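Can you give me the bound-state structure? Components:
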Amino acid sequence: MRLDIAFIVDHLPLLWQGMQVTLLLTLLGIVLGIALGALLAVARLSGVRPLAVAAAAYVDLFRLLPLLLIIFWVYFLLPLWLGRPIGGFYSALVSFVLYEAAYFSEIIRSGILGIRRGQINAGLASGLTYGATMRHIVLPQALRNMFPVLLVQCINLFKSTSLVYVVGVNDFLMAADVIGTKDNRLIEMYGFVALVYFTACFLASLAVSRLQRRYAL
Amino acid sequence: MIAIDKVGKWYGRTQVLADCTTAVAKGEVVVVCGPSGSGKSTLIKCVNGLEPFQQGRITFDGISVGDKATDLTKLRARIGMVFQSFELYPHMTATENITLAPIKVLGRGRDEAVARAHALLERVGMRAFADRYPANLSGGQQQRVAIARALAMDPIAMLFDEPTSALDPETISEVLDAMIALAQDGMTMIVVTHEMGFASKVADRVVFMDAGRIVEDAAKAAFFDRPRSPRAQAFLSKILRH
Amino acid sequence: MERYAWNWGILVSQPYVFWILSGLLWTVLVALAGWLLALVLGSILGVARTVPNRFVRALAAVYVEYFRNVPLLVQIFLWYFVLPELLPQAAGQWLKRDLPNAEFWTAVVSLGTYTACRVGETLRAGIESISRGQTSAGLSSGLTMTQVYGYILLPVAYRVTVPALTSEFINIFKNSALALTIGVLELTSRTRQIAEYTYHAIELFTCATVTYAVISLIVTYAMRLVENRARLPGMIASQPTDA
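Here's the bound-state model for the whole set.
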């Protein structure tokens, strides 16, 4: 059995197109996911009961469900709700944002809660207002602590984008799948996909570990 | 029985033990003391091979500890060790803690092992707690069970690594009493400790370590009355003031 | 949503109710079989990551890095499409043609090996958190390293990691949905199928959502029972009881 490396090289442009979609989904998912996640975290930590309960319910629900199910929910129902068809890409994007926001919110919330009460007391005792204490003492520490964990979740998001396969989005995996099935070279294609994901995620994790060691509080 | 000869040890580039030489005869009680970081715990862990060492020799009852051919597992069955953090197995009762090694290593029958365990618990004053779990015992109680556990293997020597350093002051004496009784029964002991009261009562010799070296090695009386090195003198004056 | 026709009765009408139940059955089977594999393999892996032998540790690290960095979906495709091609002719043919329920077994193996990686890492963390002192204590009484693992480290590590293992157990139920990509007709695929046929997407996906939520609750409850029975005495208590 011989691996046809030339085959992979010939199709790099198409694969790169797919990868661009993957990267776009990842990036948008991260930015919007963290934004929504931060809102959810603030809602849960706020004193406003209905807000906190609603946010908690959201987070608990979305962490219980398979991402695939959420993708299908959005794919089928968003068009109904908006009254017009939505392509696979946007369904996938919305699903990712909704799903990842729950996880990002938990990371942010535990990052803030992880700061010892003593720190807040120290700030208040020296005359700072609650807001100033949060701004100058709690949040800087919390952000430093949660940064590596957030990065890990971003790497997970990158891997999860492969699931858009099920709604036909032409991402990296789908591109490889199409090319491979057409010319019956699935081994080379899937192998290449695995290699690329492995290399990217492995290097990214190494970078995160190094960051963690340098900035650990 | 235990001979430590010019032992040197490095962690990477840092030297933690240098040119350590001493010996412990059968039935002798040797107290090793010194400031934190002087290498006392490291040295004692070299004696039963828990820590490797790069230079020198340690012989236990004629067996060379550092030799690659030595069966360390067999050797350790003959030396008992008690740790600063007790290290009782949390998922087993006091009795089970004591019987684990005799059953699995010496092949004793369960009934015989349990009977022996109860006798040992009696000896350290813990018979009533035979079926308690470590989490339901105070520190001093746990340490006494740990001593019984070490004795269960019928060791010919016992190593103590700061046995009372993690205890509340009120419970220190109950553990020291158990150790004193052991010494009076003729057990060969190396005890790393800060408890100079214990040393003055039962030690035969005192070894003082500083920065990885053995600075002073004298009979008890000589050490307490006429310490020769200035380091030892300074140490004693600080310790004894309390 | 003006023109949506509601029909909750679809969930209990035939033949759809049987489709849903069959989907649920496959989900449970895939998840449980995968979990079993994950526990066995994961235990070996967790131990392998902590033993003194450097070669074994390195091998285990390679396993973990592969399963951790390649997306689960890609792993499933590799098992299903690529593995049969890489095996010698006869074995490959058997996998492709003669093995009954090949999709099911592929899903189980993919999920199992993937989750084993996570279980292994969880156990590794558990073992490392207790290991130094307990290992010293065990070794110094003459136990071999194998005995230390078997009688002391593993029993305590399993008990200490029950919460983390619970979440991995729930994860495998969620990840079982990925089996639909190779044709296992589990719960998510069945509900999507019915939604496509009948256009009652909301009812069906609500049914799936509720089912996953219930599964999660059952798993959490079951693991809590396990935790209570296996709890280390005094693990929650912060003070020892009076002598």
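A couple of observations. The longest helix of chain B spans residues 169-184. The mean pLDDT of chain B is 88.
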